[in-house]
Structure formats: C-alpha cells, structure tokens
Recover the amino acids of this structure.
C-alpha cells in the first residue's frame, strides 16, 4: 500500500520530470474527463505562443555559432539563468500535483517539496563553479576532460538520452492529460501542438530562445500563482493561524493534517525517493547544461542562489494555495460532481489549483492559469530536447564519430536534425503511452540521473584516482542497476507487466543503484594499473587548477 502511495506521490509533482524539473510531473491517475472548451485559456495560450514565436525569430538571428546554439554564447546573467532554471523546475505538474497533494494530505505535501529542494545546496557548493570552469556545452565535457573521450562521451550520451526520453514521455503524456483537463481539446491535438512547438523553439532559436521562453514562463507562473495565493489568503484575513484552524476543522484528518503522515510510513522508500530527487536533480542533463550559459563561475553560483530563491518561494505559494483550497474549494458544492461534497472533484483531483483560481478570480484568472500551466510544459520539453540533441550532435557525432574534426555548421545542422527526430519520437511515444501510468518513467528518469550521471560526474571533479575503466563500470553499472531495480519493482513488474509479485520490494532505485555505481567506479579504478590510468591520474592536477581558477575555460560571446 505504501509503495503504491509513494509511487503516486512521485508522479504528482513531476509531470515534467523534468525533472525534472523534474526536473523536472504527475501521472494523472484515473479517468481523465474532457472538460468544456475553455476559450479564455485558449486565447491566452495563443497570445503566449505568438510572443514566444517572436522571441524564437529574434533568437534565430542571434544564433551564429555552436556556442550560441548550445549555451546562448555563455552570455546569460546569473539572474536570467536562475529564472530559467526555476522555469525548468517549476512545472505545471508542480502547481497542479503539489496543490492537490496538500489539499488531500496537508503537511506531507510540504515534506515532499523539501525533498525536491534538497538538491540545490549540492549543486551550489559542490558543482556550479566547476561545471562552468570545466565544461563547454554538455556535462560529458567534464567527465571526459582527462579520460578517454570516445568511450566516456558515448556512455554519458547513452545515460543522458535515457533520462531525456523517459522525461519526455512523462511530459508529453502529461501535456495531453492537462489539455483534456484545462482546455477541453483532444489528447492527440495537445501532443502534436507540444511536439511541433518544441521543435520550432529549439531548431530555430537554440538555447537563446529556450532560455527566454523559460524565463517568461517562470515569471508568468510566479505571478499567476502569487495572485491566486493572495486572493485566497485574503479570505482568512492573511492570518496563517486562522487558516490552519479553519482547515483542520473541516478536513477529515483534523489536526493530523498538519503532522507528517503516510509519506514517511515506509522509511526505506522515503529515503530512496529523497536521494533520487536530491542527487537526480544534480544529474539531470538539461539542468546541468544551463550552467554553461553564464559568463563565468561567479554567475553560475548566483544562478543557483536565484533559482533556489524562486523555487522556495513558489513551493510556499503552493502550500498556502493547497491549504486554502481545503476550505474554499472543498466546501463549495459547485466544484464537485452532482454537488456532493463527499464525491469527486469535477475534472479529477489534480484540478484543485484550477478550481481555486476560478473561485477567487473567476473565468479570466482560471484561463490565465490554465494557459500558463500548459505553456510550462513547452518550456520544459524545449530544454529536454536541447539536452538530448546536444548529446547526439556534440558528444556522439562531433567528438566520437568525427573525432573533433567537424565544422560548427555541420555540428549545428546535426543538432537540428536530432531535435526534429526527438520531437517526432516524443509525439509517437506520447500517443503510445496515453493510457500508461507514468510514475515509473519519472522514477526511472531520476533514478538513472542519480545512479548513472551523478556518481561519475562528481568523482571526475573531486577524485584524482578515477580512471576511464572505473568511470565506464560505474556509469554503466549505475544505469543498468537503476533500470533493473525499476523494472523489477511493483510499478512495472506488477502494475505494467501483470506479474503476481515484485522481484524488488521498493519502488525507488536511488538508495540501491547509487552505491553500486560508486563501488564499481572505485574498485575498477583502484585495480587499473595501465599506463593510460597512470596518465589520467596525473592529469587531475591540471584539471584541478582550471576547476578552481577558470583558466582556459570558454569565454562568453559578444552579442
């Protein structure tokens, strides 16, 4: 029972996944009811699309080189990048899923938000500066800095594409389900709209367009969420104690609503989930890629601080919205099927935030928030597509296949082809997985990021003894073990494949797959006595100097 609960909770905020992000959103479980066509939302969404298309046209004229395409020429400020990272992280599912979780489970929703937030100090203190100083376009630039370029980049590209594909599936399925909920349009219409718009943003505008779409989306989501929160909070006289008193009086959990509950009932799964969210965030390719867009290491640190601030603020907004909705929505028959307060919410449990916006601001505010909720998905999938395309074009094509002997024009061309291919794949997978519970895919994305990407990345930056053999065993070992743990868990082995009992008793792989990756990397590095290994260990000193000083790092482009 607890495994099922945790699996459902994992799905709630990560429709992105994105991790991502989510990364980085929820699997909207149960039957999704198509709602009446929301013209307010559609018109506002079309305005947003028109605005972002204008940005894409502007960005396309500024995208001249590979550095422009992948990293916006490294010319993004810390504040802008922080806003864009927050835009990657604050998904529509974060708004809908976590508001709904707070509505039903109270304080458990806040605990879940904290697990998401815990990854930011790791990125700030251990990674941001070194990422900017050592990397150029992708995180494999760092892992392959002193190791075998071809083998390491291939491994990094495979794990990155695995994360990106599963995250994309979660996003696309979520987009279709959100459209049913918010716009009253068909599922396939949503899938095609998201897929095509994402291809346009990335293919023509690259990182410049993607960054500004994420910034605008983050600003609109923060503004819309804040407005709904203020209007809802005003009904309690802006008194938190008054709100809590009224909420606990009407909620079925009573006072228990404000205490930790079922989320922590299974400590092993809870710890594994927390580790996955924490270290998975530090291993998501589309999040890591953002640190190469700033001018220098100082701005990289600033961007983490700004992103942390925006995300922390947004989580508190969501928590207040969730609590307020218990009284404002939960006690209003208008929002329940047949007017029965004990029955189902119209549109399903994930509609709490939307019902609250309508209750406090009418159809216009509902339309605005619905449009922003859908627009958030566009920003997240654009970042994912760019990360996937860069793994194919920069790591595999330019560095492995062409051994670095390739023009920037050819590399950008391959990246655009890869973007189109990923867009078409996302559309196909989104349609194929329409009725699938996507919780396990989100778990897999974070599990792979935490077990395959993070261990090798952090060891390459901090451990002198890491060799190519150790990195390969650690990376592939983490990738395979994370996939197998998820495959054998109840989420897939029982719920998807129909077996009687799971072979692995927990739903989250991070607690078990991460040690496998670190252990294999350590053992096979320590036992590597080859000449190449000796040279790789000696090369760490030069890497350390650049990591600390930024000497030799890529500089920002002038635009």
């Amino acid at each position: 029972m607890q495994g099922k609960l945790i699996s459902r909770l994992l799905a709630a905020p990560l429709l992105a996944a994105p991790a991502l992000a989510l990364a980085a959103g929820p699997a909207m479980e149960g039957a999704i009811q198509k709602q009446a066509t929301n013209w307010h939302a559609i018109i506002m969404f079309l305005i947003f699309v028109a605005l972002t298309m204008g940005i894409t046209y502007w960005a396309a004229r500024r995208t001249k080189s590979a550095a422009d395409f992948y990293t916006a020429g490294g010319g993004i400020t810390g504040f802008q990048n922080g806003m864009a990272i927050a835009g990657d992280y604050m998904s529509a599912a974060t708004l809908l899923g976590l508001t709904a979780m707070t509505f039903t489970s109270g304080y458990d929703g806040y605990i879940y938000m904290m697990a998401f937030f815990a990854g930011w100090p790791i990125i700030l203190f251990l990674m941001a500066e070194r990422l900017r100083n050592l990397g150029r376009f992708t995180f494999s630039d760092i892992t392959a800095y002193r190791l075998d370029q071809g083998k390491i980049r291939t491994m990094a590209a495979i794990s990155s594409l695995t994360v990106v594909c599963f995250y994309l599936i979660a996003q696309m399925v979520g987009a279709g389900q959100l459209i049913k909920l918010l716009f009253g349009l068909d599922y396939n219409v949503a899938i095609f709209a998201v897929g095509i718009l994402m291809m346009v943003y990335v293919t023509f505008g690259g990182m410049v367009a993607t960054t500004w779409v994420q910034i605008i989306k983050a600003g609109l989501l923060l503004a819309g969420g804040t407005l709904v929160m203020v209007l809802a909070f005003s009904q309690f006289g802006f008194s938190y104690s008054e709100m809590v008193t009224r909420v606990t009086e009407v909620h079925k959990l009573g006072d228990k609503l404000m205490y930790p509950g079922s989320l922590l009932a299974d400590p092993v799964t809870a710890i594994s989930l927390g580790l996955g969210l924490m270290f998975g965030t530090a291993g998501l390719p589309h999040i890591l890629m953002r640190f190469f867009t700033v001018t220098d290491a100082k701005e990289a640190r600033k961007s983490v601080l700004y992103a942390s601030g925006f995300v922390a603020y947004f989580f508190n907004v969501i928590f207040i919205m969730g609590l307020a909705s218990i009284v404002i929505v939960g006690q209003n028959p208008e929002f329940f099927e047949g007017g029965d307060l004990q029955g189902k919410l119209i549109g399903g449990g994930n509609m709490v935030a939307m019902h609250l916006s309508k209750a406090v601001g009418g159809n216009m505010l509902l339309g605005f928030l619905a449009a922003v909720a859908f627009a958030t998905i566009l920003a997240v999938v654009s970042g994912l597509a760019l990360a996937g395309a860069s793994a194919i074009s920069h790591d595999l094509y330019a560095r492995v296949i062409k051994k670095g002997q390739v023009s920037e024009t050819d590399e950008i061309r391959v990246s655009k082809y890869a973007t189109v291919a990923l867009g078409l794949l996302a559309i196909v997978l989104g349609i194929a997985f329409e009725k699938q519970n996507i919780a396990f895919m989100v778990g897999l994305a974070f599990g792979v990021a935490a077990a395959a990407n993070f261990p090798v990345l952090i060891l390459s930056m901090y451990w002198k003894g890491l060799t190519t053999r150790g990195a390969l065993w650690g990376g592939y070992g983490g990738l395979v073990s994370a996939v197998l743990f998820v495959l054998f868990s109840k989420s897939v082995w029982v719920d998807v494949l129909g077996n009687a009992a799971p072979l692995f008793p927990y739903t989250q792989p991070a607690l078990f797959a991460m040690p496998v990756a670190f252990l294999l990397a350590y053992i096979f590095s320590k036992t590597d006595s080859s000449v190449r290994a000796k040279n790789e260990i000696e090369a760490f000193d030069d890497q350390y100097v650049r990591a600390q000083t930024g000497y030799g790092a890529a500089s920002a482009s002038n635009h």
